[in-house]
Write a structure and sequence with these properties.
Layout lengths: L7 H21 L5 H40 L4 H33 L21 H7 L5 H6 L3 H18 L7 H19 L2 H16 L8 H26 L4 H18 L2 H15 L4 H14 L2 H17 L6 H17 L6 H12 L7 H6 L1 H26 L5 H5 L1
Helix pairs in contact: 1-8, 1-10, 2-6, 2-7, 2-8, 2-11, 2-12, 3-9, 3-12, 3-13, 3-14, 3-17, 9-13, 9-17, 10-11, 10-17, 11-12, 11-17, 12-17, 13-14, 13-15, 13-17, 14-15
Bound molecules: aspartic acid (ASP).
The site of aspartic acid has 16 residues, from α15 and α17.
Length: 416
């Protein structure tokens, strides 16, 4: 197995801490000249972050393609593929429904929007979300090169499955061509390690960029909304995932959370489930022992459609804005929010702040004031980081459950 660099987590945490300290010093101390601050922001933090994110994104398409093709082409029973797909989709939809219900419940009891008044200006231009129609159509690419170039994960997954199936059926004619894909997959896993070794520097730049741009005052705005949202995210990670893992597997929860640490930190720093795919895949396969046949399908699909953290934000934001505007949502409307949030979180792109874009769809549905998005956006930066960590943890939990139910998890590796 390919080795991960030593002390990676410690170094990433160190990078995070230093980014935080250096970013704050530059933001708060008047000692530095503007030219120096602008230069550091542009050429250290922004450039460093952009290079690191580009390197991660660079790997996504080939990694997903090779691992899925090599997994599918070695399947001996197609029945298993059908089972994996069905279980994955059902688990993704139900965990997201639980997530949004939880946030609606907390929001309606503790009322983040009651008595809140804000003078935040509405955004100049309202973001437009993607509807369910486009999301479904996006699964079926008309041009695979274009889909790959645009990192359209569902299209890439769909094409990889087709390609893997064809490879599987023609192996006897092609002198076991599928083995070449196995080898390419190994090479790409090594590439992931090479990029991950730069994570401490990448994370330093990402966190520094965040602090030097926004400072640390963000929490003052809409404090109750931020606090309740964080609580809901925590409850979902600690209770919901533990519950389903306990219910459907006999894996150690402590080991699961311990091994997910790096993935969560990556998601936190990048605010993008998509950019985190290489790290999630590697951890789920090499540390949690999930068989490649499961992980190579469940993880990229999850990064694209499974967004529990995002659904939690959308539920809480809807309640918050409704309360702020003095609108009482009926129980029927709450149910509608659950359904809508599940659907829109599927349609949310796995990139920073995408959840606030699809939130517009929900607000519009209930005639809630779209200007209020301004308040949500003002505090969204840190919340986006947190909910992305929840999103990827959900993907990994579902991968473990599906793998265990198919007998495709290596327990020794998991417990190691
Ligand atoms: N940043 C989130 C993700 O990539 C999406 C969102 O909620 O904005 O998972």
């Amino acid at each position: 197995m390919i080795e991960t660099p030593k002390n990676l987590t410690r170094n990433i945490l160190l990078g995070m801490f230093l980014g935080f300290v250096v970013g704050s010093l530059l933001y708060y101390l008047s000692f530095f000249s503007d030219t120096f601050i602008d230069f550091t922001r542009a050429y250290v933090f922004n450039l460093g972050s952009a290079i690191f994110i580009n390197l991660l994104k660079l790997l996504i398409v080939p990694l997903v393609f090779f691992s899925l093709v090599s997994g599918i082409s070695s399947l001996t029973s197609m029945q298993s593929l059908g089972n994996i797909t069905l279980k994955t989709i059902v688990l993704y939809l139900s965990t997201t429904a639980i997530a949004v219900s939880l946030s609606l419940f907390i929001g309606s009891i503790f009322k983040p929007g009651a008595g809140y008044s804000s003078d935040i200006a509405p955004p100049e231009q309202l973001p437009q979300g993607q509807g369910i129609y486009e999301t479904i159509l996006d699964i079926f690419p008309s041009n695979i090169i274009e889909a790959m170039a645009q990192n359209q994960m569902l299209a890439v997954v769909f094409f990889s499955i087709l390609f893997g199936l064809a490879l599987n059926k023609t192996n006897h004619l092609t002198n076991n061509f599928s083995q070449s894909f196995e080898k390419l997959n190994t090479v790409f896993m090594q590439l992931v390690i090479m990029v991950i070794s730069f994570a401490p520097i990448g994370v330093f730049c990402l966190i520094g960029k965040f602090v030097i741009t926004d400072g640390l005052d963000i929490f003052q705005e809409a404090f109750k909304y931020v606090l309740l949202l964080i609580i809901a995210l925590l409850i979902h990670v600690v209770f919901t995932y533990s519950l389903i893992l306990k219910l459907f597997t006999n894996l150690s929860l402590l080991t699961f959370y311990r091994k997910m640490k790096d993935v969560a930190i990556f998601a936190f720093s990048t605010s993008s489930s998509a950019a985190t795919i290489p790290v999630t895949l590697k951890t789920v396969q090499d540390d949690l022992g999930v068989n490649k046949n499961v992980s190579s399908f469940v993880i990229p699909v999850g990064a694209t459609i499974n967004m529990d953290g995002t659904a939690i934000m959308q539920g809480m934001a809807t309640v918050f804005i409704a309360q702020m505007s003095g609108i009482d949502l009926t129980i029927f409307q709450y149910i509608q929010v659950v359904i809508l949030a599940v659907v829109t979180s599927i349609g949310t792109a796995a990139v920073p702040s995408a959840g606030t874009i699809t939130l517009v769809i929900i607000l519009q549905q209930f005639g809630l004031p779209l200007e209020a998005i301004g308040i949500i956006l003002a505090v969204d930066r840190i919340l986006d980081m947190l909910r992305t960590s929840v999103n990827v943890t959900g993907d990994a939990a579902v991968a473990c459950i599906v793998a265990e139910s198919e007998g495709l998890i290596d327990k020794d590796l998991f417990n190691k």
